[in-house]
Amino acid sequence: MSDITVKDFDSWVKPSWCPGCGDYGIFAALKHSLAELGVAPHEALVVSGIGCGSKLPDYMHVNGLMTIHGRPLAVATGAKLANHALTVLVVDGDGDAYGIGGNHFIHTARRNPDITHIVENNQIYALTKGQYSPTTPQGRVTTTSPEGVIERAVNPVAVAMAMGATFVARGFAGEPKHLAGLIEEGIRHPGYALIDVLQPCVVFNRVNTYAWYGERVYKLEEAGHDPYDRAAAQRVAAEWDDRIPIGVILREDGAPSYERQVPALNAGPLVERSLTDVADIGALLRRFM
Amino acid sequence: MNEGNAVNDEDLVQAIQNRAGLRSADEARRLFEGVLQALAYVLPAEQCDAICACVPEDAAWCLRCGPATPDPLIDSDVFVGWAMASVDATGAPDETLGGADPLAALAAAEVQARVRVVLEALWERLEPPSRAGIEGCLPGGIAEMMNPGSSATRREHDEGDR
To answer: First and final CA of chain A: distance in angstroms?
Structure first.
């Protein structure tokens, strides 16, 4: 039994999220998951982008890095390549992950680094006061779509599966205990794990509220879904509106993670090697200087 | 409904509207239902039944919408989210469906005050034997809102225990 507790992850910085923000539930679930797994604060790295939820590393006693908008997956991949022992998590919003960071999202999914990616999906750019995001439903009126969103919304779990992701799940910030279980499974999974989280924004999304989700979500594990069945996972991924599935949608065991396949790291992660093992620094300097 | 504590729906809604400073009876009703739904997610069935006995029958469905077992990770912040799901906090709506409340980030005190109004109204109507059981199951911070006179029976969260 680990002696790591949730309180070990408490920071002296108090969250500045709006009262009732879905980020609080995600935050509680994440801390609970790390404590349950016995991951100490110095053994974990939380990388975020820009947005309300991306302020999370400030509020947590853990290695943390807030990157530029849309780039946390790239930075997290680099960290994992350098130190395989780190439990690397990315926490960002739907705008950061699926919009500005959309390119990194699809390529990280197919690359399969051992990273757990928690996306706070509130279907809006909230920090900048309510612009529509890639997951805002078509037709929704927002501050930047006064006549309704024209584009179709991104279905992130379907995209991740199409790109070859080996673990795809969806949680709900209003049920943090269930979400914590998903995050634990994602961390245990030795590859890229997407956990798309239905996150009510109490200010700029007055449609998809706690109550709205509460009436619609159902748990896949209670419905007998087999996450190893890719065809069934595709069907589940397409469900929305009246019934919204939460739980592990797809998983594939045995696929090697990216960092285990990089030839330059055959001798071990960079953090365990001396600079002279990695390269002849003198030769490099002579070549480029 | 509890005979000794019979609640008139309109009276209750009006009391909540007045005490919470809400603009309409509809907002007061939505706030009341939101708080009941939040309670459904943190209280076991026995405690929900006790509250059902002292609220209008047409509001009892709110206490039946929660999970089979309460979620121990719902803290006071998440509770407020469930409670305030359909009520604006403060500030003027900007006429679009998306942006409703540009001052909400500064509205924590106001939101808590409104939730407190409903919790206190429920507390007054609860049978005394039920009170301690309910208070003991509530997240820290919410228990104190419901019964400002006592914080001794606050529920120990998973977070606090670990």
So the answer is: 53
- For the entire predicted model, the pTM comes to 0.89
Q: Is residue B161 part of a domain?
A: no
Instruction: Kindly state whether A85 is in contact with chain B, defined as any CB-CB distance less than 8 angstroms.
Output: no
Cβ <8 Å between B97 and A132: no
Please report the residues numbered 70 through 109 in chain B whose beta carbons come closer than 8 angstroms to any beta carbon of chain A.
Answer: 71-75, 77-78, 80-86, 89, 94, 96-102, 104-105, 107-108
In total, how many domains does chain B have?
A: 1
Query: For the domain that residue B117 is a member of, what is the CATH number?
Result: 1.10.490.110
Is there a contact between A202 and B104 if contact means CB atoms under 8 Å apart? yes
DSSP B29: H
A37 has a chain B CB within 8 A of its CB: no
Q: Domain limits at B50?
A: 9-146
Residue B34 within a domain: yes
Choosing among 3.30.1490.20, 3.40.50.970, 3.90.190.20, 3.40.605.10, the CATH entry for A6-256 is 3.40.50.970
Which value does ipTM take for this structure? 0.86
Q: Quickly state the pLDDT bin for B90 (edges 50, 70, 90).
A: low
DSSP class of A12: S
Do the domain assignments include residue B156? no
pLDDT tens readout for residues A71-107: 999 999 999 999 999 999 999 999 999 999 999 999 9
Instruction: Classify residue B3: in a domain, yes or no.
Output: no
Residue A210 confidence (pLDDT) above 60: yes
Chain B residues touching A202 at Cβ < 8 A: 81, 84-85, 89, 101, 104
Decide: B37 and B85 in contact? Cβ < 8 Å. Answer: yes
Closest partner residue to B98 (CB to CB) among A6, A178, A205 is A205
Contact A202 B65 (CB under 8 A): no
Distance between the two ends of chain B, CA-based, in angstroms? 39
Collect all residues with Cβ–Cβ distance below 8 Å to B154 and sequence separation of at least 6: B135, B136, B138, B140, B143, B144
